[in-house]
Amino acid sequence: MSNILLNKICKVWNRNFNVEIEKDEDDYYIVSCPRIQGCHTAGKSINEAMSMIEEAITGCLESIAIEDLKIKIPHTDKEKEMFFAKYSEFVWTNRRK
Q: Is there a domain that residue 1 lies in?
């Protein structure tokens, strides 16, 4: 895989997540969210890759809520705000490997 081409911001659950985009040997754009371990995806274009990483970050956050924290998935903006206020340190430091 080549070096990082772009650093972009992806907004999910009213939060900004830094993402890194690389281009692989098959000309796919590989995008990952360094703050969430194991949160990677790819797309044929940068736009497709960005769309896919939004879904991947959402899926990771939902997984953390359900599997790791044993709480319901936050749906409203207020619930999402409370989720990050209460669990942000857990999300960044204890993500399952």
A: no
